[in-house]
Amino acid sequence: MNADTRKAILAAVDAAFDEQVRTTQRLVAAPSPCCREAPAQEVMADEMQARGYAVDRWTFKAAELEHMSGYGPAMLDYDETFNVVGTLNADSRRGRSLILNGHVDVVPTGDPADWTTPPFEPRVAGGKLYGRGSGDMKAGLLAGLFGVEAVRRAGFDLLGRIHVQSVVDEESSGNGTLACVARGYGADAALVLEPTAEELITTQIGIVWFHVRMRGTPQHASGFQGRTPNVIEKAFTLIEALHALETRCNAPENRHPAYADHPLPIRLNIGQIEGGNWPSSAPGFCTFSGRLAVYPDQDPAEVMAALTEAIETATAADPFLRANPPTISFRGNRFPGFLARGIEAVRPVLESAHQQAFGRPLHESVIAFGSDARVLGLNAGIPSLVYGPASENLHGIDECVDLESLRRVTGTVALFVAEWCGIEPRKER
Q1: Model confidence pTM above 0.70
Q2: 190 with 98: CB under 8 angstroms?
Q3: What is the structure's pLDDT at 221?
Q4: Which residue from 351, 376, 340 is spatially nearest to 101, judged by alpha carbons?
Q5: Which domains does the chain have, with CATH numbers?
Q6: Residue 163 contacts residue 99 (beta carbons within 8 Å)
Q7: How many CB atoms lie within 10 A of CB 86?
Q8: Whole-number Å distance between alpha carbons of 114 and 246
Q9: Which of 232, 228, 239 is nearest to 275 (CA)?
Q10: pLDDT, tens only, 316-342
C-alpha cells in the first residue's frame, strides 16, 4: 500500500471511532456469562448483518465435538447460546483469506457492589471504557469488525475472503472456536484479538482445570462424639501438595525454553472452594476447584497425571485422608500450550501495520494464559497470531480497555486486513 492509501484507511478508523465506542458499550451492556451468551451474540449478528456480512449462527452440542483433539469437557450445555460467524467475499478466489476471532463470554463479575459502577452498565472515564468484558475481549472483537469496515469506508473493496468469528465458551473450554473448526471454517491466517497490551503473542501456555471433592464426618461442633479432623482444614493439606507440584514445574530444569525468563509460567490457582452447611456443625464435605498451567508441546494428560499423583501421595501420608480418600475429576479447560508455527508470511504484515498505526515497532511477548489461537493453530492448522489493545483488571473489579490503545489497534487491524487480503479501489456501480 502507498502512503495515501494507509492515510485514508487510518482516517476512516478515526472518523468512525465514536461509533465504535458506542457499539462496544452496547456489546458490554449485553450480559454474556459463559454458555449464556445469546444477548451479546444477538448484538454481533445485528452488527454484521448491517454491514453486509453473510451471517451464520448456529447452536452446537458438546457431543458433536467430543471426538476432536482440543475438546474440553463442557461445564454447561450449549442449548441457550450460539456461535456467530460473519463472512465477506465467500466465493472469492483472489487475495488471501483471513479469520478475525474473538469471544463474547465473560467471567463472573464478583460482587457488583465492589464496582465503581455496575459491571454491565458501561461507562467512559479518563480515556477508558469500563465494564465486564470490555477488555476481555469485546473491544478487541469489535476492533476486528470496525477495522474491516474502515477499509471499505475508505473506498476500497477487499479481495480475500474474511470470516469474523464471534464465539462462545472460550473461558471454560475453547469449544466455541472448536465448533467453528468442526463447521469447516478455515483461512490462510487468523488473528485472535485478545487484550495483549499492543504486543504480538506467538507463545502461550495451556491449562488444565481440576475439581477435588472430599468427604468429612458431620457432627456437632462441640465434638462431644469425639474429635475428628475437619475436612475443610484438610483441604489445605492437598493444596499445599499441589503448590509443591507447582514449584517443581517452575524449576529451571523443568521449564520450556520459551519461558526461561518468565517469573512464574506454571501457576496454580485455587479458584473455588465450598464446604459444610452450618457454622456449628463439623463439615461433611469440602470441594475445591482450580487450574494448573501446561507448557507448550506438553500433553495435558501429563499434567493431569501429575495432579492426580500429588493428591494421592498426600492422601496416603495422612491417616484421615487415607480413610476418606478424595476424588479428583477434570472438566472444562484441558488444552496444551501453543507455539505459533507457519507464520513467516503473516507476521511481517502485522508488524508493518502496527508500525504504521503506532509509529513504533511491534514488540513480542509470551503469555502465561491461553487463547483460542491454539484451537485455530493446532486443530485447524491455520497460522495464528494474538494481538489486541491495552486493558486493565481482566477478570477483576472495574475491568476496562484503554480507548486510545483501542483506536490505534483498530488502525493496525485495518491496515493488516487491507495488506493481507488485498484491496482495490471500489468501482462505481
Answers
A1: yes
A2: yes
A3: 82
A4: 376
A5: 3-204+337-425 (3.40.630.10), 206-335 (3.30.70.360)
A6: yes
A7: 25
A8: 31
A9: 232
A10: 999 999 999 999 999 999 999 999 999
Q: How many residues does the chain have?
A: 429
The secondary structure element, H or E, covering residue 307 is: helix 300-316
Q: Angle between the 139-153 and 17-28 helix axes, to the nearest 10 degrees? A: 150
Q: Is residue 44 reached through a cis peptide bond, with omega within 30 degrees of 0 on the bond before it?
A: no
Distances (CA, A) of 397 to 117, 119, 207, 324, 403: 10, 8, 23, 38, 18
Q: What is the pLDDT of residue 393?
A: 98
Which set of grid coordinates corresponds to residue 422? 488485498
Supply the pLDDT for residue 217: 84
Spans of the chain below 50 pLDDT: none
- Cell numbers that stand for 106 in this block: 465473560
CA distance 382 to 375: 9
What's the pLDDT at 222? 81
Per-residue CA distances from 113 to 105, 109, 127, 134, 397 (Å):
21, 10, 23, 18, 10
- Residue listed under C-alpha cell 472518523: 15
